């Protein structure tokens, strides 16, 4: 099975967590796109979605799925999203798609985070994937120095040669060389640095379930 087929497999499998008649929380990325495409098949059975990015909103609306503002809902039964890395406790690194801030906001509305990944995302310890951190531009250099003090090399994410600007109008640093053995403590520490909007460690908003696409089929992991 190709990686794309594994993503389609878990995107389809995630439908079983969608509660009929409700609004579903939807993440961002290529695996989530497979879920959105599968969700369209049952759009008459759901009320709609709360989206974590302009990209996902556009895809949902193009498929006729109503999109609600995050401020319009009290809570969601489930949030479906991908990850760049997931460890043995359901802690994740996210932000490869530059949507980490709104992803964490929508995840915080949900009772259950269901992570959909292909097996390449499984790691023992978070940090192999460059850690995305959304920052206020004027703080980028001082935050870079703080990561350097802990052995990380932060680089500004570029798009077409210019700093990438997120849906929230901020910049993203990608930090290499970290080994995040204590995700909860790491997320709490970095969150407090002035200028940090969101750090791409999802430990306080960890996954409850992971649907992992493997050559042997979909593995359901509960944390
Ligand atoms: O940016 C994100 O957080 C995405 O969810 C990312 O982590 C997964 O994207 P992919 O499914 O395209 O690998």
UniProtKB/TrEMBL annotation:
SUPFAM superfamilies: D-ribose-5-phosphate isomerase (RpiA), lid domain, NagB/RpiA/CoA transferase-like
Domain of life: Bacteria
Enzyme class, spelled out: isomerase
Gene3D superfamilies documented for this protein: 3.30.70.260, 3.40.50.1360
Subunit structure: Homodimer.
Gene that this sequence comes from: rpiA
Bilayer-crossing regions: none
Reaction(s) this enzyme catalyzes, per UniProt: aldehydo-D-ribose 5-phosphate = D-ribulose 5-phosphate
NCBIfam families to which the protein is assigned, alphabetical: PRK00702.1, rpiA
Catalytic residues in the record: 103
Protein name, as recorded: Ribose-5-phosphate isomerase A
Pathway: Carbohydrate degradation; pentose phosphate pathway; D-ribose 5-phosphate from D-ribulose 5-phosphate (non-oxidative stage): step 1/1
GO terms assigned for molecular function: ribose-5-phosphate isomerase activity
Function per UniProt: Catalyzes the reversible conversion of ribose-5-phosphate to ribulose 5-phosphate.
CDD domains given in the database record: RPI_A
EC numbers: 5.3.1.6
InterPro entries: NagB/RpiA_transferase-like, Ribose5P_isomerase_typA_subgr, Ribose5P_isomerase_type_A
Binding locations of substrate: 28-31, 81-84, 94-97, 121
A GO CC term attached to the entry: cytosol
Organism of this sequence: Paenacidovorax caeni
């Amino acid at each position: 099975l190709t990686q794309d087929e594994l993503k389609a497999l878990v995107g389809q499998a995630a439908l079983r967590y969608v509660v009929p008649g409700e609004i579903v929380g939807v993440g961002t990325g290529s695996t989530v796109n497979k879920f959105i495409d599968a969700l369209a098949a049952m759009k008459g059975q759901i009320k709609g979605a709360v989206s974590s990015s302009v990209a996902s909103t556009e895809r949902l609306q193009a498929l006729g799925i109503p999109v609600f503002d995050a401020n319009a809902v009290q809570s969601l039964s489930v949030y479906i999203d991908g990850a760049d890395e997931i460890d043995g406790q359901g802690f994740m690194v996210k932000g490869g798609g530059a949507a980490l801030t709104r992803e964490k906001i929508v995840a915080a509305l949900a009772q259950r985070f269901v992570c959909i990944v292909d097996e390449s995302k499984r790691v023992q310890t978070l940090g192999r994937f460059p850690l995305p951190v959304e920052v206020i531009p004027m703080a980028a250099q001082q935050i870079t120095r703080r990561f350097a003090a802990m052995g990380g090399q932060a680089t500004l994410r570029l798009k077409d040669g210019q700093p990438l600007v997120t849906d929230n109008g901020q910049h993203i640093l990608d930090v290499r060389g970290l080994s995040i053995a204590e995700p909860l403590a790491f997320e709490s520490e970095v969150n407090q640095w002035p200028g940090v909007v969101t750090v791409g460690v999802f430990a306080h908003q960890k996954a409850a379930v992971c649907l992992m696409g493997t050559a042997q089929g979909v593995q359901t992991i509960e944390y």
